[in-house]
Predict the 3D structure of the following.
Amino acid sequence: LVVVEGTLFRFDYTYHQEAEGWFKLHRIPATWQNAYLNCYYEGAVLASPETENLRAALKSTVTGQQSGQSLQSCGIFTGIHATFGKGAYFSVEGTPLSRIPVAWAPGEPDNANNSEDCLLMLPNGTLADVNCSDVYPYVCYRKKQKNMPALNACGTVDNGYRFDSRTNSCYKFHTTPLIWTRAFVACAHEGGYLAIINSKLEHQLIKELYSKSYSSIISGNYNRGAIHLGYKSFEHLSLWMTIHGQTLKEAGFEEWSKGQPDHYNGRQDYGTLLKDGLLDDTGSNNILPFVCEKEPSSLLAAEDFS
């Protein structure tokens, strides 16, 4: 585990003294927006070279000085963008580009096809503008603060997760609705997974959580009668399985609402729980609240990476 003055963050982040915070290099390329969101769900931000020390630390990450594996061929997305207004570049923390100690690469910025609003940091530490829909590796950054929260019983600094002794698991009700696939990604980046009902007891627990959290759900045009859970159809009606590879029966709960699953219009392959506690299927574009589940020992495995 990374320990800095008695404070822990996440086992998959590395502390950089010069950057006064933690970095995580994501080698799997993503669009700028998805990189931004993935960092957010990890409790961090898409890193920008806001200071000379941050620039040096990011450069060492890109060139492989920290990991021994270089990204020389492409560079990384930074958190600097002009998606709010053409040519108005700011970091995701709100710092204008004019106050960030970086230089442009030769020939940059060129705003090719009038469609380059996100900035890439090249291995030599210079910047280039690129299309935000292109995919690149990226680095998430969590700045060390004087009063950083300590790890809770769920092994995270996110106090949205609460441990429940009835199932020895942790749960977080997300009141910001997403489509099922984005909910899956959000849970994964938080160190958990879309909740799976493994028993009648856990079914009752999630029903209680749904009922308690329902009144706090933010306003918006979406279905309030269901939440996403971690199961889906792989062969339409014939094979419903959890995201951990079990049938619903094997997992421990398969009580469907009357007439469900019906795979309405041939487009409902994702699993939900209705407010009455029964299962239902939904489409890929249905925006719903969701529950993430997390093992309380999730970060204990970090000892294997130290």
